[in-house]
Amino acid sequence: MTQSFEGKTITCRAAVAWEAAKPLTIEEIQVEPPRAGEVRVKVTHSSICHSDAYTLSGKDYAYRFPMILGHETSGIVESVGEGVTKVKPGDRVIPLYMAECGMCPLCLSGKTNLCGALLKTQAMGIMPDGSSRFSCRGETIYHFMGISGFSEYTVLSQFSVSKVDDDAPLDKVCLIGCCIPTGYGAATRIANVKKGSSCAIFGCGALGLSVIQGAKAAGAGKIIAVDINSAKFDQAKHFGATHCVNPLETPDVKIEQVLKELTDGGLDYTFDTSGGNIEVMKSALEALNNDDSTCVIISLADAGNVLSTNTTSLVGRKLTGCAFGGVKGSELNDYVKLYKEDKLLIDEYITKNINIDEINDGFDDLKHGRSVREVIFM
């Protein structure tokens, strides 16, 4: 049972991003008690995701510095505020960057996993009442994606936590907070991959591996991993890829043409997880066949970059985006159960475990492709 500091401000350690494109610094911060509708969580584990690095770079203009990054996280509820009904102290939880209130028009529509409850405040780095629960040396520290997992304690809306089984291994299931459902769901839900179909996944990082897992689970017949780093292909095959293609090995032939030759005219489904390269996104679209095929864009392009295409490229094809793989927070424990039943790979994503003092090295490893995921033991 996690120690309770109910009603008290907690002083703990956190990795603070004081400004863009600068290393994080380990600081003692103050974490206020949860207010009405809020939950304070003892963070046990957080992994480093490309979205954290993207925001730290300063390319994502939505968030405010100084902030505490981290969103692929797991932990245990320490205390709850007035009116909280979703969880109780002692519950194991996965924080949600895609909230689920269950009451707003979006939640009630049955058409989307998007939720409108926190849209106005989450991107501003504040809680629903317009304030922050973090401070350091008297200065306000802002929240990130409604989570801020690079802190030993954090405060979230009750709509931003998903309860999981009491025996869920928190050092593994933190990855269910982002990369696994996003990629797996992109294949099984957003694209709705059909048995025997052909798929190409651009990028073999954590998201790409998750798409490969999802495509395999859906019964795809041909799963092509595309990456400019051939060292990633053994792992891609372990996750379910049937073919691997490195575009650098055929510099005089466009990758979409290579893929069309491999699939007798084009793919049924393509997925871009490459990290926001507009040209790669275009290649993913152009590699499709014209028989009601689908391209799913999962990557985020840098602010100001625009994906454009000739409208004839859309004939017989669908181009769509993806938010958390179409998965709702209340469904995350299904992924926990799949893992416990040996039907979902998680351990294989984790390159190594680190502590919070090594976090900047972890960001550097991710940047240079030395890791898929590094899990921070908080």
Automatic annotation (TrEMBL):
InterPro entries on file: ADH-like_C (IPR013149), ADH-like_N (IPR013154), ADH_Zn_CS (IPR002328), GroES-like_sf (IPR011032), NAD(P)-bd_dom_sf (IPR036291)
Pfam families: ADH_N, ADH_zinc_N
A single Gene Ontology CC term: cytosol
Annotated ranges, domain Alcohol dehydrogenase-like N-terminal: 36-164
GO biological process, alphabetically ordered: formaldehyde catabolic process
Keywords associated with the record: Metal-binding, NAD, Oxidoreductase, Zinc
Keyword NAD listed: yes
Chain ranges of the Alcohol dehydrogenase-like C-terminal domain: 206-338
Cofactor list: Zn(2+)
GO molecular function: S-(hydroxymethyl)glutathione dehydrogenase [NAD(P)+] activity; zinc ion binding
Family as reported in the entry's similarity comment: Belongs to the zinc-containing alcohol dehydrogenase family.
Protein name per its UniProtKB record: Enoyl reductase (ER) domain-containing protein
